C-alpha cells in the first residue's frame, strides 16, 4: 500500500518547483521594470536640471536648452534623430514664464517619454509622469 502512495506523489515536487519558479520570475521582472522606471525618471530630472542651470547662467536660448536635455550638448550631433533614451524634440518643452518681471522663470517639461517594459502587465498600467524643472532667471 505504501508503494501506491509514493507513486501518486511522484510529481508533487516538480509541480511545486514550477509554481515557485513562476512566482520568482514574475517578481524579478517586476523589480527590473520598476528599477527602469526609477532610473529613467531620475536621469531625465538630472538632464533637465543641468540644462536649466546652464541656461540660467548663460544667455537664454530655448533651442540650446532643448539640445542640452536631448544630447547633453548645445548643438545637435551629426546624424542624430533621437536623443537620450528615445527622447525627441517634441517631448521637451522649454518656456520662460513672467519674462521681464521679478518672477522670471525658466520651465523645462519632459513629457510622453517612452518605456520599454519586460512584463506586459506593467506596460498596460503605467503612464509616464511629466518631469518639470523650474529655476528663476536673475537678470543683472
Label this structure with key terms:
140 residues, alpha+beta, three-stranded antiparallel β-sheet, 49% helix
Write the layout of secondary structure elements.
Elements: H1 2-8, H2 12-57, H3 62-71, E1 92-97, E2 105-110, H4 120-125, E3 131-136
Antiparallel strand pairs: 1-2, 2-3
Helix pairs in contact: 2-3
Overall description:
The protein has helices at 2-8, 12-57, 62-71, 120-125, and strands at 92-97, 105-110, 131-136. The chain is of the alpha+beta class. The protein has a three-stranded antiparallel beta sheet, covered by helices on one side. Strand 1 (92-97) and strand 2 form a beta hairpin. Helix 2 (12-57) packs antiparallel against helix 3 (62-71).
Fraction of residues in β-strands: 5-15%
The SS-based structural class is alpha+beta
Could you give the order of strands across the largest sheet? 1-2-3
Overall geometric form: elongated
Count of spatially separate domains: 1
Count of individual helical segments? 4
Mean pLDDT over the full residue set: 85
The string of secondary-structure elements, in order, is HHHEEHE
What is the gyration radius calculated from CA atoms? 25 Å
Major beta-sheet overview: 3 strands, antiparallel
Strands, total number = 3
The rounded distance between the terminal residues' Cα atoms is 95 Å
Helical content class: 40-55%
- Which spans of ≥5 residues are poorly predicted at pLDDT below 50? none
Amino acid at each position: 500500500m505504501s508503494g501506491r502512495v509514493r507513486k501518486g506523489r511522484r510529481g508533487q515536487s516538480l509541480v511545486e518547483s514550477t509554481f515557485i519558479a513562476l512566482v520568482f520570475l514574475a517578481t524579478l521582472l517586476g523589480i527590473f521594470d520598476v528599477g527602469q522606471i526609477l532610473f529613467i525618471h531620475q536621469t531625465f530630472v538630472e538632464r533637465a536640471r543641468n540644462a536649466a542651470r546652464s541656461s540660467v547662467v548663460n544667455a537664454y536660448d530655448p533651442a540650446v536648452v532643448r539640445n542640452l536635455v536631448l544630447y547633453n550638448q548645445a548643438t545637435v550631433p551629426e546624424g542624430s534623430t533621437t536623443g537620450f533614451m528615445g527622447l525627441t524634440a517634441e517631448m521637451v518643452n522649454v518656456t520662460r514664464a513672467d519674462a521681464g518681471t521679478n518672477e522670471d522663470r525658466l520651465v523645462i517639461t519632459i513629457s510622453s517619454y517612452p518605456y520599454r517594459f519586460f512584463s506586459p502587465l506593467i506596460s498596460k498600467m503605467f503612464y509616464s509622469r511629466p518631469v518639470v524643472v523650474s529655476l528663476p532667471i536673475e537678470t543683472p
